[in-house]
């Protein structure tokens, strides 16, 4: 009977740890994407918070748009990852000066960023990105994503290291489970 209560306590402890927010989630209100080479082209930007893409359908603006097509900034957050021109955002600055900015309309604890690049027969060599995450005016993260080989790249912003409170909860829980099992073992008699 005590063993079942120990298992129930361990399950409850695990549930509490699983619900805790990720240790390295980054609170983000907007993101900027730049290219490491000439023209910026983005088929889709995805920012995940609690398993949801919080970038989809948000306000996207850019410093330029390619003059020969309707490859507007909103195409980078429309939910379409296929990467065929003109259904992508395509900048017009051939000096790697384009900046795509997505305003999330609020603060989200983002754990993953993904960028889909171009998949048609042209220009996949441009799918190399620099992203900068902002919380208001403060820069809270930056990195690079290289999607040139696969037209898709992801960075996990949530690390595998739990917060100190989660460590304390886990260690305390394991101690309780170990103590309960030790007491149970001491009370067993062989008749």
Automatic annotation (TrEMBL):
Keywords: Signal. The keyword Protease does not apply. Residues 1-25 form the signal peptide. It comes from the Bacteria. Residues 160-184 form the Ice-binding protein C-terminal domain. This is PEPxxWA-CTERM sorting domain-containing protein.
